[in-house]
What we know:
The complex is a heterodimer of chains A (294) and B (129).
Chain A (H helix, E strand, L loop, with lengths): L1 H17 L3 H12 L2 H28 L6 H8 L2 H33 L5 H18 L5 H24 L9 H5 L2 H14 L20 H27 L2 H5 L4 H5 L6 H12 L9 H9 L1
Helix pairs in contact in A: 1-7, 1-10, 2-9, 3-9, 3-10, 4-5, 5-6, 5-14, 7-10, 7-13
Chain B lengths: L13 H14 L1 H6 L5 E7 L5 E7 L2 E7 L10 E6 L1 H8 L5 H7 L2 E4 L2 H15 L2
Parallel strand pairs in B: 1-4
Antiparallel strand pairs in B: 1-2, 2-3, 4-5
Amino acid sequence: MKKAFELGFYVTFGAGIAFGISSFTILSELFKVANSFWLVVSICLAGLVCMLLSSAIAELASMYPSAPGVRTYLKVALPPRTSLFLVYLYLMFMIMVAGIESYLFALVVRQLFPQLPALAVVLTLLALTVIVNLLGLELPRGVQMFTTTALILSVLVLGITGASTHLGNLHWNAATLTDHPLSQIGDALGSAVYLFIGFEWVTMMGFSAKSYERKIPISMPLAILTNIIAYCIFSLALATRIPVGSITASAIPQIRQAPGRVSSTSGSIGQMYSTTPPDGTGMTRGMRCSEGVR
Amino acid sequence: MATTDVSAVQTSSLLDSLQDFQRRFNENARVKKLIKGWDRYLKVEGTDTNELYTVTVKDLMVTKIEPGYSLPEDDEDVITLQAAQEALVRIFTGKYNPSHALIDGALAVFSGDRDKVKLEAIAMLVWGL
């Protein structure tokens, strides 16, 4: 039981960190460069690329258990100046991600409360994150697992409910498959990899040295697989229910998918997962990562 | 590898270095303020020599340093520190900043995030690192 809990924690942590609000924006962007079929293929290929990367990360993690991830790996592999330069580059990227996540969070909150100014929402979220970190507040592992599982399941349920009876709307045919597939995959693959970034943060969470022998290496591909399934089903649901033009016109297409399109109940769930950071820690992906780099 | 030589004490073994740490820890009034309500067991493990000690922090003091380890593996009050013996000796004599050791990959720490921060703060107060 304890072993299953430990593995479950690693899987949900990895999946939850990667599954940020900006994931939905990336899906919206992917619809600009690929049709629904090649979009799903690109997501699967990006997931496979990340699984390959995860095997290298697992090897490094077993060599340096509990080390602060990329900071240690770069320091060991490269000269000090080069490694520090790359770490700062990485930190800047994470700060940028934190900004994007905050902005998207504000957009979603404003769907619920249009009278709230976006800047106030962003600043409040950032301030709350700083306070949570300064106070050292942390949800129990069980609660983190529960919230992440509930949110990913809600995405799956909404996706399946939305897509199942309307698969005919996809209009997949020979033309869909032969319409410059390499070009579509090439354009979508890079962005699709971003959907999975964050799975590697689990390497800092090992309960003991033994965790790095099997559980953490296994947890990373499992977390990626979880997200492949969730992203693919949700993308198909978007494609079956909403015109591509409407998906690509919005940075928060999940809002268009939920209210009034499936049912009022699932619409409420949609709003909930849109506004709740799925890592269950009260922080969005970028903020969690920035905190982790410290 | 960053080092800060702030201690004149020369130690030759892990046990000596832990005893030196115990003395400095217990004499430091600021550390006592920091660790109110923080009773923990430090499981100190030399990965190359398999030398193992359990350091008990209780009632604002390091009360015991015992060879071996007899507590349950999943005890949440246990903080596990693993490193080569030489690195551990340097860490517990204030010659190697534990934060640097962690980043260098020379030290592995298994505990909650708050305990890691607490250990960093203790190192700052005991050795001024």
